[in-house]
Structures are given as C-alpha cells and as structure tokens.
Amino acid sequence: MIPSAAVTTVLLAALQLIVFVLFAPFLTATIRLTKARLQSRRGPGLLQPYRDLAKWWGKLPLESNASGPVARYAPPVVLGAILTAALLVPEATSRAPLLGWGDLLVVVGLFATARFVLALSALDAGGAFGGMGSSRDVAISALAEPGLVLALAGAALAAGSSDLGIISAFGIKQGIGLLGPAHLLAAAAFAIVIVAETGHHPVDNPDTHLELTMIHEGMLIEASGRSLATLVFASELKLVVLAAVFSAAFFPFGGATEIAPGPIALGLLLGLGKMLIVGQGLALLDASIAKARIMTLPDLLGLASLLAIAGLGIQVLLP
Amino acid sequence: MTVTPDSGVVGVLLPIFWLAAVVALLLAAAVAFAPRLRPLSPILSTAGSALALALGCVLIASGASLSGSAFHVLALSTVAFHYDGLSGVFLVAFGLSSAAASLSIVGEQARSRPEEAAYPLFLASIVFVLGASTAFSFLLAWESMALLSAFLIVGLRPTRAVVSATNLYLAMTQVATAAILAGFAILAARSGGQLDFASWHIAAPGLGPISRNIALALLCIGFATKAGAMPFHVWLPRAHPVAPSHVSAVMSGAMIKTGIYGLVRLVVDVVGGCPDWLALTILGIGVVSAVMGVLYALMQHDIKRLLAFHSIENIGIILIGLGSALLLQAHGATELAALALTAALFHSINHAVFKSLLFLGAGAVVRATGLHDLNHLGGLGRKMPATMLAFGVGAAAISGLPPLNGFASEWLTFQGLFGAAGTAGIEPLARFAAALAIGGLALTTALAVACFVKATGVTFLGLPRTAAASNASETTRPAVVAMSLLAVTCLGLGLAAGPVSSALRAVARVAFHDGPPLVTVAAVSAEPQSSNVAIYAALSVGLLLAAAIGIIAIASWARARARVRRVDTWTCGIAPKPAFQYTATSYAKPIRLFFRRILVAEREVSVEYHPGTSFPSSVRYRSEITLLFEERVLKPAHRLSLRAANVARKLQGGAIQLYIAYMVLAVLVLLWWAR
C-alpha cells in the first residue's frame, strides 16, 4: 500500500523532528567526550547534556533589571526558527520531510532569523558581555555567509535547483562521480563555515567561561532557567541541522530514494553516522589547535569564500 | 481618458481612482493656505496616497491600462499619460510609503505653509512621473519632483549644512536630467522626431548599435543617479538625513524608486533589453551599491544617515535583480528573465514599505529625544514599546529574514542569479560574474543583519545613555498607527509572497513583451531548469514558524512567568552603568577592522589640559569613515573642474571688443558650417 503524500509528509516530519531533537544533545556529548579524551581527561558522560538541559529547565529564572520582553521571548523564536529549518533538510531520505516548502536559501534565512533575534536579545540587559558577544557573532557570521551560500550555490548549480532534496537526489544518482574538484572545493568551504557557525576552534571556544573570550556563550550570559535551556538546545540543534545540510548537499550517499521502511532506516543510520563524523572532526579541531585571534578570522573565512569561488569557477568556466 | 481593455468595473474604477487621487493631493496643497482647513492637509494627502495605492493594485490585478492626454499644443509637445501594470507596481510602492508618511503627520503642522503645500504637490508629481508617456510630460513631472523635493529638504530657514546638501542634490539631479534628456533626444531622433514612448518602442529595433548603446548608457546614468546607486549616490546620504522624517520616508520609499521605474520603463519596456555589457554593468553597480551601501551604513551612528546608506544597499539589491533579468533576456531565457525582474519589482515595493517604516521610527525617536546619534540613545523600548515593535519588524524585514517580505524578494533575486549562472546560453564569464554576485548578495544580507541588530539594539534596548533618552515618551498616535500598518504590511506581503509574486510576474512578462502571463500559483517558485523547481512556500513556512515559536513560548513562560527573580546585569560584580554597554561605534568595530582596507577611519583626538599641569581637562574624540569614492574620485574631479573653470574664465576678459570678436568668430564658423 502506498501512503498518500500528506501522510508521508507528516510521518517523515515527525520522525525527523524526534530523531533530531533526541540526537542533538548526544552529538554535543560525543564532541565533548572525544575532546576530553584527546586532552587526557575522563570527560563528562554521554548523558550530561541531557542532564544539563533538564536541570536548567527546572531552575528559577533570573532576569536582569534592565531587560524586557525581547530577552524573554527571544529564546522561543531562536529555537522555533531552527526547528523549522530542521524540517526543510533531507536526512534519511533524499527528500526533505516538508517537500516543496523551502529550499536551501530558506534554511539559511531561518538561521539568519535565529541569529538576528539572539544577537538582539543579547543587547537587552545592557551589559558589556552581551554586546561583545553579539557584536562579534554578527561580524563573524557576516564573513561566513558568502562562503556558506557560495558553497551551496555550487551544489545547486550542479543539480540545477536550489532545492536541497533535488540536490541530494542528484548526488545519489551521480554516485562517486559527484566528487569532482569543484564539488570537493565547495565541500571544504562549507566545512570551514560549519566550524564558524557552530562556534568551535579556531573561531570560538564552546567551553570557555571567561567573559572576554566568549562569542556565542557571551550572548547567553544573562539567560537562565528555561531561556538558557532553550538557547543551548537551539545551538546543539543548529549543529545537527548544519551537519545534515552538509551531508545532503555534498555527501548524500546512502540516503533513501524511495519511501519504504527499510531504506529509510538505513538512510537514517547512515545520516546519523555522518553527523557523528562531522562532530568528531570538530572535536579534533577543538583539541588540536588553539582559538585564533579574532582579527585573523577574515583570513580563515575569506579562505572559505575563495574555495567556494574556485569551485564555482571550475564548474562554470571549465565545464 | 481611456481604459484598455475597457471591461466592466475596472473601466470605471481606474479613472475614478486616478482623478480622486490627483484631486485629493491638489486639494491638500490648496488647504494648506486656508487658515481653518490647514489640519485637513495631511488627511487629504493620506487619502490621495491611499487612492494611488488602490489605483496601482487595480492596474496590477486587472492587467488593464489607463491613458489620456491634454494640451495638444502643436503635434510635438503633448502632455499625455499611460498607466499600466508597471506603473501600478511603483504606484503601490509610492502609495504604501506616502500614505503612511502622510498619516504620521496628521495633527502636526509643517515648518511653514509653503512647505505644507509643497509636500502634497511633491506626492502628486511622483504620481505624474509614473504615468507620463511622452518625453515632455515625463521631464515636466520629473523636474517638478526634483525641485519640490529639494524645497522640502531645504525649507524656508535652512542651516548652512542643509543648504550645501540641497545644492549637491540639485546639482546631481540636474546632471541626471541632462543625461536622460540626451538619451531621450537620441531615441526621438531615431524615431523620426516622435516624442512618445510608444513610437520609440516601435522604432527601437531599428536603432543602430552605436546610438542604441549611447542612449542606453545615458539613460542608465540618469536614472541610476536618481536611484542613488553607486557611484552616483553622493547626494543621497546627505539629503535624506536633513529632510523632515516623513519627507525622508517618501524620498527613500518612493522617490528614488522612480529611478528604478525609469530604468525598467525605458530599458526593458521601450528599448526592449540591452546588450550584455550593460546588463553586467548594472549587475556590477548593484553588487557594489549593495555591499558598500551596507558597509557604510554599519559605520554610521546618525540614525537617519544609517538608513540613507541602507537605501543605497537596497537599490543595489533591486539592480542585481534588474541586471540579471536583462542578462537573461538578452540570451532568450525569458521565463527566468521575468522571474528576475519580478524580484526587482517585488523588492521595490518591499523596500518602500520597510524603509518608510524605519524612517518613521527614526522620526519618532528624534521627536521623542531630539537626538540623531545612536550613541546617545538606549533603552527607548521601555518608553516607546509600540515604536520599538514596529521598528523591530521593519529591521527584521530589511535584513531579509523569513517570513517577512524582504526575504521573499531577496529569495527571488537569488533565484534570478542562480538562473543566470546556470543558463547554458550565456557566456561563461558572465555566468561566473552572476555566481560571484550570489556571494555579494549573501554578504550584503548578513551585514544587514549586523547593522539592524545594532540600530535596533542600541536605540531601544539596554540602559539609556543620556537624560534625553531616559525622558523619552511614546510618539503621536497617528504615527504609531502609520508604523503599525506598515509593520503589518511587511508581514502580510511576506506571507502572501506567492500570490504577490505571481501578480508581479505577470507585469514583468508584459514589460518584456512576452505574451500572456502565466497562471498564478500559491507559492513563490522558480524554475532554474524546466524540470526542477525550487519553492518557497511562504505562508506554510510562516505558519509553521509561528506554531513552533508559540509552543515553545507557552512551554517556557506559561507557568514559570510568575516566578522570576530580578537581578542586576552581570558586570563582574560592580553596579551596572550605561557606559558599560556597547555603543553603535563599538558594535560595528569588528566589522570595521575586518574590512579595514575599504573602511578607512579618520580619527581626531584632542586633549586639553588644566593650565600648567598634565591633568587633562577635556578629551575630544571624533572618528569618521572616509568615503573612498568621494575622497579619491569626486574631490579630485571637483578640484580639476575648478581649475578648468579658472582657465576658462580668462575667456571672459570683460572688454567689449573681445565679445564682438567672439561673435564674429561664431558667425564665421556658422557660415563655414552651413556653406
């Protein structure tokens, strides 16, 4: 029996939502664990991020005297935007759960919505650290954005559409032949962008609690209770979504091309595996190189844009 | 007046709306001089603008056109108008912007009666520009618009800075008109002396390549100057900030769009496209305007100057859409060309909405505090919650965030670029240029996010930085209503992006003379290649986003709300002070340093000491960003022209014999010429 389109959409969306939500803290946990082991520490258990979220969710919230509705209602908007983006990215199958709702630009746009609201809310309390984190975060994202969009544009031009499902299906059909020089350059550019967007070394230190060095954490400094839980979870989920975009656009191999339980299960496992690999790469970076000075970041992120441009150049000028 | 096709209700509505709009605006000007009726003027302006908006909507939706003529003085100089869908798009942009701007000043008095009367006349002149169908009537309306807007900027009792800004504006607008006039002259000469656009369109295929290129280049220079595109933008960041806020709103929302309208009308509709080099030049001007506009905007701390630079940015985005449309059109990709032009038209409307909203918000802030400088504001959200909410929506919309309207039109612009980069018929280098423009547009939107987090956050959030900021109060009720209506329009146009963009696409196809419009679809869609479709289902995404936000907000705050402990902001254990906050200048500093090759800062520190000691009594610090184009190109050119003028002055010897010699010489040359 072939299920109707609407039922398929709802089932796939529910599946993806549940898997992403449950998996996001786990991915962060694996990164922390690997990083700790590489630094010869025991590190927290794999359930620690879940315990942290539960703890914050139950705590009495503290609000700054200076802050108002923006800080209070920003966390739901941030998480809402990233959850919406999560459903527009193909994961287990080569189609996004919400087929025909939005393409890669909508995903990028929803990330921008989350960033705008979070950066704005960081200014609400009128402290120095919120402004510092906010100012740095928007500046770094501005540098990362061209690399992000240009890398995805390379994949989109190859597939002939900016729809992530079509890009993913195109990649699966091409098989290993997909991995030409233009494609690999774009993938490298996107990998650099993931590092910048998720706040790992050498761009940001996810574990720092020294105010002057914080970028993403600096924006959360006034958040507490459920707001903190929501924002931390949103950033964990963002990593999952970005990793999913990465694999859908550049390494979609193994994704199910038909809607049937067997291929979907296989595609799901492979997809989660790819995310773990991305996570391990980030952990390796965190453990092996130091955080760079903020003024050297244009070189790194400019490199991402240049790689993406080189990829596009090969694709367009030397077909 | 005639309506084609003359069908039922539309045939009646169009002339009525047009007449009523014009009469309302002229009445608004007249009542400014009547002592008792003077308060009616803004109300009549609002009504006239709303009628123009209705006229535009009907023109777009029906595909009909309204034309008429008057004053048949000789056969040549006919005053004639012809409103079609393309006029309709810009009438909608104009109507939304000026209706809100006029509404915001209800209950207030302008600085003087002549200014009060000039404002509705200025609005009327824009309505005339958008419908003029002959060279004479177009230039008449165009010049009235320029002069009236200049008068509105300068007012009756101007300061020296305002006079200098206005002079620059007048000079540049005259250069623009001269270029347009020259372009018109070529088109008229090549169509047997006819002065109406329709004859030019018929004669356009017969234009030789040289006259075609020259005419198009002249028209582009003229209209790009009015639009404020770089490098013809110099007047804009000076003129907009010094005008009253409602005038800035209309100038930025509607008047600079007449430059875009002129480009689309003449280049796309009348001449029927342009060669690759010009399409790529427009694309390049678009990218440079967008990126440089937003970078300079980030460096501003005067709220209105910041918004003025953002107008340059958004004109850039519109030109990116137009440039890719022209490039695609030149290579026969008509569907994609219509899509890219749709992006440009949609963004023109969207920019009119959110930029007017932001200018009105800035006006409310200036009114409440008397301050333009972001670095002296802060914490206004507590005192002006409605203004903050509306300004925030406008800021999010101009930053291109889904589900608001700015994102929808930027999405279409991106799709146009994807189409241009992926169309096989276009030369590889041009496709590569389109691909690079994708990166430029991405950089622009990300920098816009940074800029509007800064503008909104530093103004409305945190602690007030001065006494004036802490004593602010909410602005007038009409202004709040006007801003709220615009904010709702931002959301509405964003959610209705599907139907709106299909309607605009029909207009774009007509402008390209492409035959019957497509059937309308519910979602915004693009066809990069015929079989593959990219879709942005704005309404669905918006509703899903709203549902997600709602559920999380209820879960977070429904029961926990009552139990919140209030504490001081963490500032390492000392009492928070407003001075601890990031200012507008410090907020943008990382970006200034990242782009330090382009954003060269000019700083001045002066310290005064207590006499005889080394203790400073006062320290002054001033920092300005050098505007590279002005410093490196315009100022040297200005000096050169002054020197040339000095040389030329020697011709004016003052002796009567000399002038007689000139005359004789001129007569001799003419005789030789006509021999």
Q: What pair of chains forms the biggest interface?
A: A-B, 91 and 91 residues
Largest sheet geometry of chain B: 3 strands, antiparallel
Q: What's the shape of chain A?
A: globular
Strand content of chain A: under 5%
- What's the SSE pattern of chain A? HHEHHHHHHHHH
* Mean pLDDT rating of chain B: 88
Distance between the termini of chain A: 44 Å
Number of helices of chain A: 11
Describe this structure in words.
The complex is a heterodimer of chains A (319) and B (675). By secondary structure, chain A is an all-alpha fold. Chain A has helices at 5-38, 48-58, 69-86, 104-122, 128-159, 164-174, 181-198, 216-219, 225-250, 261-288, 297-317; one strand at 62-64. Chain A has one domain (5-317). Chain A has 11 helices and 1 strand, in the order ααβααααααααα. The longest helix of chain A has 34 residues, at 5-38. The mean pLDDT of chain A is 90. By secondary structure, chain B is mainly alpha-helical. Chain B is 68% helix and 7% strand. Chain B is built from 26 helices and 8 strands. In chain B, a hairpin with a 2-residue loop joins β4 (524-529) and β5 (532-536). The radius of gyration of chain B is 26 Å and the shape is globular. At the A-B interface, β1, α3, α4, α5 and α9 of A face α17, α18, β4, β5 and α22 of B.
Q: Helices and strands in order, then pairings?
A:
The complex is a heterodimer of chains A (319) and B (675).
Chain A (H helix, E strand, L loop, with lengths): L4 H34 L9 H11 L3 E3 L4 H18 L17 H19 L5 H32 L4 H11 L6 H18 L17 H4 L5 H26 L10 H28 L8 H21 L2
Helix pairs in contact in A: 1-9, 1-10, 2-9, 3-4, 3-9, 4-5, 5-6, 5-7, 5-11, 6-9, 7-9, 7-11, 9-10
Chain B lengths: L1 E3 L3 H24 L8 H23 L2 E6 L8 E5 L1 H20 L8 H19 L3 H20 L5 H31 L6 H7 L5 H19 L8 H7 L2 H11 L1 H14 L5 H23 L4 H28 L3 H36 L10 H4 L1 H14 L6 H18 L5 H33 L6 H4 L6 H19 L1 H15 L12 E6 L2 E5 L1 H20 L7 E3 L16 H4 L1 H6 L6 E9 L6 E10 L2 H22 L6 H18 L2
Antiparallel strand pairs in B: 1-2, 2-3, 4-5, 7-8
